[in-house]
Design brief:
Layout: E1 8-11, H1 15-27, E2 31-37, H2 44-48, E3 51-56, H3 67-77, E4 81-83, H4 93-101, E5 105-106, H5 111-117, H6 120-129
């Protein structure tokens, strides 16, 4: 399903961040898919989306952090890509890899970059190699 043109985007987040992504998507002519918990069925991001799917009860561990549910919605809705917003799954290497395995574009850095930035000494090595100033201190042993 992955291609250079994204015709339909699933936003795996809620609230203002989801609304901002939807506004930009609309300007670009991209259809949007919202996900929401049972407590948010009347939320603005749900109303703004072209399609919306409930992914579970209010606790984020049972809804927004359930990559399996979000990817099922992506497949059912025909979304070409998933934008994680921030927080929730945006820093999950497993989620980024799962998107790739299902031929769904992950709108964000590749899983390898997420992994490397989560390892303090590795991220410092990468930043130093790019001449980014870093605070001296522990670099791992």
């Amino acid at each position: 399903m992955a291609s250079s043109k994204i015709a339909k985007l699933l936003i795996a987040n809620r609230g203002e961040i989801a609304c901002r992504i939807m506004r930009t998507s609309r300007k670009l002519g991209v259809k949007t898919v919202a996900v929401y918990s049972e407590a948010e069925k009347h939320a603005l991001h749900v109303k703004m989306a072209d399609e919306a799917y409930c992914i579970g009860p209010p606790p984020s561990q049972e809804s927004y952090l359930r990559g399996d549910k979000i990817l099922s919605v992506a497949e059912v809705s025909g979304a070409h890509a998933v934008h994680p917003g921030y927080g929730f799954l945006s820093e999950s290497t497993e989620f980024a890899e799962s998107c790739s395995k299902r031929d769904i574009i992950f709108v964000g850095p590749p899983a390898s970059a997420i992994r490397d930035m989560g390892i303090k000494n590795k991220s410092k090595e990468i930043m130093e190699a790019a001449n980014v100033p870093v605070v001296k201190g522990y670099h791992g042993d």
